[in-house]
Design a protein that fits this description.
- The structure holds 2 protein chains of 2 kinds.
- Chain A has a single domain (1-492), classed as Amidase signature (AS) domain (Amidase signature (AS) enzymes).
- Chain A has 16 helices and 11 strands.
- Chain A has helices at residues 9-17, 23-41, 49-64, 107-114, 157-164, 181-187, 221-231, 266-269, 276-291, 306-322, 342-353, 356-369, 375-398, 420-424, 431-436, 470-484; strands at 44-47, 76-80, 118-123, 170-175, 190-193, 213-218, 261-265, 295-299, 401-405, 439-447, 458-465.
- In chain A, strand 2, helix 4 (107-114) and strand 3 form a beta-alpha-beta unit.
- The longest helix of chain A is centred in the C-terminal third of the chain and has 24 residues, at 375-398.
- Chain A is globular, with a radius of gyration of 21 Å.
- Chain B is an alpha+beta fold.
- The mean pLDDT of chain B is 93.
- The chains are: A alpha/beta, B alpha+beta.
- At the A-B interface, helix 10 and helix 11 of A face loops of B.
């Protein structure tokens, strides 16, 4: 691991804007850190050495001319491989897009750039963001920086590991069912899934369009807020982006936990639901909030577990259609034409280009949308989705924030969840935020018990708030962050 | 083999019509639309952006103008405009369909439940029910010809048309004659062109027709038999529409005799049209029909039409061609034939009405004649519409006034129109300045008439003997002598006076 001092985005940007450090220095240091760690972690699939240095020089020139280089001046940011950048190749962790270069930047990338952030490289992920361990990646497995025998979580495992390992102060990922929050919890960083519609999806390669949101991985809540402020807001290229003022995400300052009603759904903490270390950590956080005068409210969310099955109808249905464009006709992988006809060419291209998990979900999605099954599966799932949303609406009448563990367990071993069903259950606490379109954040709160080798792994706490209430969510999370004072220094 | 005799045989046809809307940009992105006149000749794959090519990460954004054009057509067809409609994905794989799905409207179309009246060739008024009119995007095209005309081994994809806004209008099966389907199609084309939503160039595929055809036969034994429905795809000429229906009218009876197949679930099939052999050709049976797995497109928000928007569009709705036609005949005394032509182009119709309004003296028939004869001839030569000649309603009215006062000869009309085309001056000013006004010098006219009679003794004699047709020759002579500066009517009167005392 790197020994370079770790900074936050805010620190870096302030230093660069104030002329105390140059962007070139920051990028050189970052590239050195990536060179030192990436071989063992494999967080980055591609690193933009030249492009990043070039951008850094432009930022330094701006500073020299007395211009403001932006609120993220010189901040290197890792970009998940399913978010389009003009640098490098946009592959979504899939053979089918190997070598594919996007002619455009995602809106979020444009907005990051406009504030002086520097895309530093593309981070590995589960193929088309389908997975919870980043093991479904065509370009190698990502390792958890706290314990390299463990997964980093997924699907944004590369982004989480890049921040958790200290290679970069920030990275962006996408969250369809927990793909930011769960890996953030596994890697000991802050991971924010904004409200659906808060951040433009233009340039995010769609998985489940009604569920996908882009969000940041950072070391602090302050940084997560800063990135969200920069990335969020209405984008006319995404009809589903909300016309909500982005200043709404600025955290309520100095939130006093004493005035807060923190809801703890009993389904998140019921006996046997979580690993003992995780449960103990949640109990500890709850006790601390109470000791600070926070009001703990017991909440009932009976549909919690129903979320997974609902999700595994809606997300694959949308994915089966979203991924239809990968047909080998216009770009990407195409099977060799053996003259057996168009249908065969499609079938072989997709069978050879997609990995098994993607194929499984495309088949599942195709099935639930088929005539004769649509009503029983897809339509029913949409009805349940409505009920889950209603359940949250009711819950937020009696509390400000929902709190629980991000994941029932800490980072598991590589290959530790060989069957799809057990992998799907990783998202039990996170997926409903996507289904209901509300916002959620995971922050590191403690460590699990040391294993035989003395290694420990971070535990993440999950906070959720009503749609477009990022301000409240981030305010409470920042207050809690102060109390928890998690040390993200990697061992040894 | 069915050999029962058929007592009556009735054709039943419903029609689906695809209209390419001529918005400037495509249905879901800002790239130019090939159905707009400015972009219709764009080289292959030049009207393509990341959204059209379905590059990873792209999203559709609805074109409001296309929705408004559809509402306009819907209103003109007497449809209800849905206050809430949405976009659905129709999923299937084909190389001309970049996303692997077409964005369409499945269960909540923008327009529904309308009707359209046609006047059949037999003079009857028929009501054709409109089930729905929904908006979708067109596909690209597959071809095998390279630019320049050489042939390519394999298939070429041209995405220029991909994403063009397409309005699909579906009628009830209210047709029982091929001729009525054609009349409907032609009337709908006039309407859509009048509304300015399409150029309606059939060869370019701006309007494509898909009739659903079957037969209802009453047999000698009293049974009533319905043949399975056949959908004929993509007809882009009225000749093909008529041909396909007529061919099916015969073919379905033969098929029923051979197979005995009747209408029922799973018995619909799809045919194409062979324009050279003039026959329909089987494309696929229902058994291998697609399951399109329609579902709401999560990338787009529903279309909500509020009162303000609806009224804004309704306010743009002009008096429609059919109503204008009736009014031209009933109020202006125009011939049906002329009224038909006048409403084919909205600009022409408006020029006509403005000219009529300027004069306001009942000279509508004369105006129509001027527009449809001399002006049309001139427009034809210039390759433009009459309303695009650059002649204003005031100028048209001016020409008519000169004619009515016998101050402008027939032969001078063309010359005056030519001058008016490039000028803002009034008809009178130009005619005066260019010496086009009729000479009213009676003695000069008298001399020319005498000259003509002297030079054409035989013709003069014939006229004296009552053969009035012979006078033309004398009139021609005078016209020639005058260099066209006299009015034929007064020449004729002058000659007649001399010869028939």
């Amino acid at each position: 691991m790197t020994n370079a001092p770790r900074h936050t985005c805010t620190e870096i940007a302030n230093a660069v804007r104030g002329g105390e450090r140059t962007a070139v220095e920051v990028i050189e240091e970052t590239l050195a850190a990536i060179d030192a760690s990436n071989e063992s972690i494999n967080a980055f699939r591609e690193v933009f050495h030249e492009e990043a240095m070039e951008t850094a020089r432009l930022i330094d020139a701006k500073v020299a001319r007395g211009e403001d280089p932006g609120r993220l001046a010189g901040v290197p940011v890792g970009i998940k491989d399913n978010i389009a950048t003009t640098e490098g190749t946009t592959t979504c962790g899939s053979r089918i897009l190997e070598g594919y270069r996007s002619p455009f930047d995602a809106t979020v990338v444009e907005r990051l750039r406009s504030e002086g952030a520097i895309p530093i490289g593309r981070t590995n992920c589960d193929e088309f963001a389908m997975g919870s361990s980043t093991e479904n990646c065509a370009f190698g497995t990502v390792r958890n920086p706290w314990d390299t025998s463990r997964v980093p979580g997924g699907s944004s495992g590369g982004s989480a590991a890049a921040v958790g390992s200290g290679m970069v102060p920030a990275a962006i990922g996408s969250d369809t069912g927990g793909s930011i929050r769960q890996p953030a919890s596994f890697c000991g960083c802050v991971g924010l899934k904004p409200t659906y519609g808060r951040v433009s999806r233009y340039g995010l390669v769609a998985f489940g369009s009604s569920l996908d949101q882009i969000g940041p991985f950072t070391r602090t809540v302050e940084d997560a807020t800063l990135l969200l402020e920069v990335m969020g807001g209405r984008d006319r290229r995404d009809s589903t982006s909300a016309d909500q003022p982005i200043k709404d995400v600025v955290p309520e300052s100095n939130v006093d936990l004493a005035g807060m009603r923190i809801g703890v759904p009993r389904q998140y903490v019921q006996s046997g639901a979580n690993d003992p270390d995780v449960q103990a950590c949640v109990d500890d956080v709850v006790a601390r909030i109470e000791s600070l005068g926070g009001q703990i409210v017991e909440i009932d969310l009976p549909l919690t577990e129903t979320g997974i099955s609902t999700y595994y109808v809606i997300a694959p249905a949308e994915a089966s259609s979203n991924l239809a464009r990968f047909d080998g006709i216009r770009y990407g992988y195409r099977a060799t034409d053996d003259g057996s006809g168009l249908e065969q060419l499609y079938a072989r291209t997709r069978a050879e280009g997609f990995g098994p998990e993607v194929q499984r979900r495309v088949m599942l999605g195709t099935y639930v949308l088929s005539s004769g099954y649509y009503d029983a599966y897809y339509k029913r799932a949409l009805q349940v989705r409505r009920l889950i949303k209603d359940e949250f609406d009711r819950a937020f009448k009696s509390c400000d924030i929902l709190l629980g563990p991000t994941s029932p367990f800490t980072a598991f071993e590589l290959g530790g969840k060989p069957d799809p069903m057990s992998m799907y259950l990783c998202d039990v606490y996170t997926v409903n935020a996507n289904i209901a379109g509300i916002c959620g954040v995971s922050i590191p709160a403690g460590m699990d018990q040391a294993d035989a080798d003395g290694r420990r792994r971070p535990i993440g706490i999950h906070l959720q708030a009503q749609a477009f209430e990022e301000s409240k969510l981030l305010g409470v999370t920042a207050a809690l962050e102060k109390v928890l004072a998690f040390d993200d220094t990697l061992p040894g | 083999m069915n050999d029962v005799a058929i007592r009556t045989k009735r054709l039943k046809v419903g029609l689906e019509i695809h209209v390419e809307l001529q918005t400037r940009s495509k249905m879901f992105t800002r790239t130019p639309n090939v159905a707009h006149p400015d972009f219709e000749d764009a080289p292959p794959n030049t009207l393509v952006d990341p959204v059209v090519a379905a590059l990873p990460g792209t999203l559709p954004v609805m074109n409001r103008a296309a929705v408004e054009m559809s509402m306009l057509v819907g209103l003109a067809l007497g449809c209800d405009i849905a206050r809430f409609s949405k976009w659905d994905r129709k999923n299937y794989y084909y190389p001309d369909l970049p996303k692997g799905y077409q964005i369409s409207q499945y269960d909540l179309p923008l327009c529904h439940d309308g009707e359209f009246m046609i006047r059949t060739d037999e003079g009857d008024d028929r009501r054709i029910g409109i089930i729905r009119a929904h908006l979708e995007e067109d596909t690209g095209k597959l071809g095998h010809d390279l630019p320049g005309g050489s042939t390519f081994e394999g298939s070429l994809v041209d995405l220029n048309r991909a994403g063009t806004p397409l309005l699909e209008i579906v009628t009830h099966p209210d047709f029982d004659r091929a001729e009525d389907v054609v009349t409907f199609g032609q009337e709908l084309r006039v309407l859509c062109r009048f509304l300015g939503v399409t150029q309606g160039v059939m060869q370019r595929g701006h309007m494509r027709f898909e009739p659903n055809i079957n037969l209802e036969m009453e047999l000698e034994d009293g049974r009533v038999v319905k043949t399975p429905i056949v959908e004929v795809k993509n007809l882009n000429s009225f000749r093909a529409v008529r041909g396909a229906i007529e061919h099916e009218y015969d073919r379905q009876e033969v098929e029923w005799r051979e197979t005995g197949r009747e209408m029922g679930p799973g018995a619909k099939s799809t045919y194409g049209w062979d324009d050279e052999k003039m026959v329909t050709v089987l494309q696929r049976e229902k058994e291998d029909a697609h399951d399109y797995r329609y579902f709401p497109d999560p990338d787009l928000v529903p279309v909500v039409v509020d009162d303000a928007w609806l009224e804004e569009v309704r306010a743009q709705l002009p008096e429609l061609p059919a109503a204008r036609r009736t009014r031209y005949v009933d109020d202006f005394g125009l011939r049906e034939k002329d009224a038909v032509v006048l409403v084919e182009e909205r600009g022409l119709s408006e020029l006509f009405e403005a000219s009529v309004a300027t004069l306001n003296d009942g000279s509508a028939v004369a105006i129509a004649k001027l527009l449809l004869n001399q002006c049309a001839k001139r427009a034809n030569e210039s390759g433009c519409g009459v309303h695009q000649l650059g002649i204003s309603a005031d100028q048209i009215a001016g020409v008519i006034k000169l004619r009515e006062a016998d101050e402008l000869g027939t032969q001078s009309i063309d010359a005056l129109l030519a001058l008016l085309s490039g000028s803002d001056d009034s008809a009178r000013e130009l005619a005066e300045r260019e010496g086009l006004l009729v000479i009213v010098d009676e003695s000069q006219l008298d001399a020319w008439c005498d000259e003509a009679i002297a030079a054409n003794e035989q013709a003069a004699e014939d006229v004296r003997n009552g053969k009035m047709a012979a006078i033309g020759r004398l009139v021609g002579h005078v016209m020639k002598s005058s260099g066209g500066s006299v009015d034929a009517k007064s020449v004729q009167a002058g000659l007649r006076k001399k010869l028939t005392n």
